[in-house]
Amino acid sequence: MDNIFNSKVRVKILALLYGVKYCEFNYLLKKLETSPGNLWSHLKKLEREGYIEIKKYPLKKGVRTVVKITDKGIEKFREYLNELLKLSGGGI
Fold this sequence. Notes:
By secondary structure, the protein is an alpha+beta fold. The protein has one domain (3-87): Winged helix-like DNA-binding domain superfamily/Winged helix DNA-binding domain (Arc Repressor Mutant, subunit A). The protein is built from 4 helices and 3 strands. The chain has a 3-stranded antiparallel sheet. Strand 2 and strand 3 form a beta hairpin. It starts with 7 loop residues before the first helix and ends in a 5-residue tail after the last helix. Residues 9-86 form the Winged helix DNA-binding domain.
C-alpha cells in the first residue's frame, strides 16, 4: 500500500475529496479539525504525489484556496478502499 495512506489526516482529506471532488481549504480545515499548518503540509504532500491539485484565486480581501482530487487520487483511493475490504474479507 502507498505510504500516502500512512496518515489518517491524508486519508480523511482524500475521503472528503472523493465524495465532493473539490472544496475550499477552510472547509477541509473545519471538517478535519486540525491546524492550518498541519493541513497545509499534508495537502502539499498529496499535491507532490499527484493525488490533488491546489489552486489559489485572488479575492478583494485575501485568497480563495480550492483543493481538487485528481484522476490519480481517485484511482489510488479506490485501490486503498479495495485493499481494506479485501483485508476484512470483502471486496469491490
